Amino acid sequence: MNLTRSLPYTLRCLLCIGAFVTAPAARADDAGSLAGGTAVPNYHELRIYTVASNKMDALIERFRDTVEPVRRRHGITTIGYWSAPGTTNGGTFVYLMAATNKEELRKQEQAFGADAQFKAGYAASNAKHGQTVDQIVTLPLAVDGATKFDFKSAKCARAFDLRLYSVPPGRLDAFRNRWRDFAVPIYERHGLHSVGWWVAEKKDADGNNQFICLLAAESLPAIQISIADFHQDAEWQRVEKATESHGKLRSGVTAYKLTPTGIATRE
């Protein structure tokens, strides 16, 4: 019997946090890629980088050594950094920021961009590595009052599932209610923990709403097992059939299977 898998997620997190206290500093940075705390700021912003071929290590180095330390000094709060490597060490680099509002974050980023230390570090990184990013997608995220965030207990997670759902016009409330009332607890039952969910301020290219969620688990294989178990769950199959009797609640989904980068987001 696999004892670890049979334990509820909350208990596994308690065990993991106990290990986190005594673990080496390198693991603490990695495991702590999601900041704790109970207060949830009113505004979040997600950034998704398409990394140039063979430049993931260089990009992580830049953020670890220059970007994050300077951003922190200017009051910018980054909840976590994650990556999904590509076949040539390119892939996807993702981070999530939090602020009181969008204007506050813009002012903080202006000060960050003008910082002499950042400019020097960025120039040195460019000279050493050249172009590291092919594309950046920025998604401003409004915090929904019905959302349940749990950044703190996700600190011990070693893998994350970031999903961007395309939800047709007129279907957002139904999708959001189904996610909150049914999908989240059923995923939890199968070992996939909800960190939080959002609705992007802007629609996608097809005019659909963008519903964003972040789930956490012990490993990438554990995520795949949990997803398979979720779709075989009798309660979910019943709920899905009932809620989609008049049509699908989503038109598509883009998913990123991510792991922490090791970039510390706090002192």
What global shape is seen? globular
How much strand content do the residues show? 25-35%
Total domains = 2
Quaternary state reads single chain
Question: What's the alpha carbon Rg, rounded to whole Å?
Answer: 19 Å
Main sheet makeup: 8 strands, antiparallel, barrel
| Contiguous helical run count | 9
The secondary-structure element order is HHHEHEEHHEEHEEHHE
- Give a count of the beta strands, DSSP E runs of length 2 or more: 8
CATH topology of the largest domain: Alpha-Beta Plaits
Low-confidence stretches: 1-38
Which architecture name of the largest domain does CATH use?
2-Layer Sandwich
The structural class is: alpha+beta
The first-to-last residue Cα distance is: 40 Å
Rounded average pLDDT: 85
CATH class of the largest domain: Alpha Beta
Report helical residue fraction. 40-55%
> In order across it, which strands form the biggest sheet?
1-3-2-8-5-7-6-4
Descriptive notes:
With 267 residues, the chain is α+β, with helices and mostly antiparallel strands. It folds into two domains: 9-37 and 147-260, Alpha-Beta Plaits, CATH 3.30.70.100; 43-142, Alpha-Beta Plaits, CATH 3.30.70. It has nine helices and eight strands. An eight-stranded antiparallel barrel has the order 1-3-2-8-5-7-6-4, surrounded by four helices. 31% of the residues are buried.
Task: Provide a quick synopsis of the model.
With about 270 residues, the chain is an alpha+beta fold. Helix content is about 40%, strand content about 25%.
